[in-house]
Amino acid sequence: xxxxxxxxxxxxxxxxxxxxxxxxxxxxxxxxxxxxxxxxxxxxxxxxxxxxxxxxxxxxxxxxxxxxxxxxxxxxxxxxxxxxxxxxxxxxxxxxxxxxxxxxxxxxxxxxxxxxxxxxxxxxxxxxxxxxxxxxxxxxxxxxxxxxxxxxxxxxxxxxxxxxxxxxxxxxxxxxxxxxxxxxxxxxxxxxxxxxxxxxxxxxxxxxxxxxxxxxxxxxxxxxxxxxxxxxxxxxxxxxxxxxxxxxxxxxxxxxxxxxxxxxxxxxxxxxxxxxxxxxxxxxxxxxxxxxxxxxxxxxxxxxxxxxxxxxxxxxx
Length: 317
Ligand code: ATP
Description:
Elements lengths: L6 E19 L5 E20 L4 E6 L12 H10 L8 E7 L9 H17 L5 H11 L3 H6 L2 E6 L3 E4 L6 E7 L6 H14 L18 H9 L2 H7 L1 E2 L2 H7 L3 H10 L4 E4 L6 E5 L2 H14 L4 E7 L5 E4 L5
Parallel strand pairs: 1-8, 3-4
Antiparallel strand pairs: 1-2, 1-12, 2-4, 2-5, 5-6, 7-10, 7-11, 9-10
Helix pairs in contact: 1-2, 2-3, 5-8, 6-7
Bound molecules: adenosine-5'-triphosphate.
Family: Belongs to the GHMP kinase family. IspE subfamily.
Keywords: ATP-binding, Isoprene biosynthesis, Kinase, Nucleotide-binding, Transferase
GO molecular function: 4-(cytidine 5'-diphospho)-2-C-methyl-D-erythritol kinase activity
């Protein structure tokens, strides 16, 4: 049997929701979702190393906003994998972040997913796909998708996944904001706006139709038609994110002026996601967004990319 590694590094991608439909709040306070996720090439790397005592360090983008205690999703992931496993021991976790924190791109979920896969490899646990999914869903609704990657449909709380029939590669431009948005706060704002319009925000789930992703989006993905994907892009959380950060309206307007095929707030925001027609168009869009000064940072990425994957077998030392 090959010896177990001293350290393992796993890379996990950010996500964008091409479509995000939000049903009313149920009795437990959650909203039924229907979403199309796509994993994009912005990554966090999580290294898990055998150590005398447990620790967690974070470096990179927004590192100062990430908790370094047991509330960190990567820490919780390592504990979840180690439970009942004889090989498990203390580890030093280090996270290299490139995904914005509280940016609506599932950065914390990516770290949780990466840490699950890393701890599994470090200790030779051999988790089955089903077990990995169960542990991921226990950490958070977006974690199963961060494990899976690609393009997928999420229902329930976003954690019931089915791979989407999707062709093609997509060119994305992301405009980051220097101030994050808390996901629960954005959902609460959506409820408030819906109530203001006289909509029933907390009707029993059985009396409400389940949200469903649109045929337009599924057809566009199936044919790999970026223009049609752009037109079908939609996010029910966008109005709430714009209400909490009104300057995002300007960011979206600039993307539209520069001919983005589609432009929406990503997930719960405040990152804005723009779909470009080509590599060159993405470069032009990125330059225009940067020059306008509306965003704190602008990044290009490709999608879809794989989910959490081992990038370092940790055979050194
Ligand atoms: P989502 O798109 O899944 O709604 P998000 O991208 O908007 O999430 P995250 O970056 O995942 O937001 O961070 C949300 C909060 O989670 C942070 O404010 C932080 O307190 C907490 N958190 C816990 N673990 C992590 C982690 N490893 N990285 C970043 N944030 C973390």
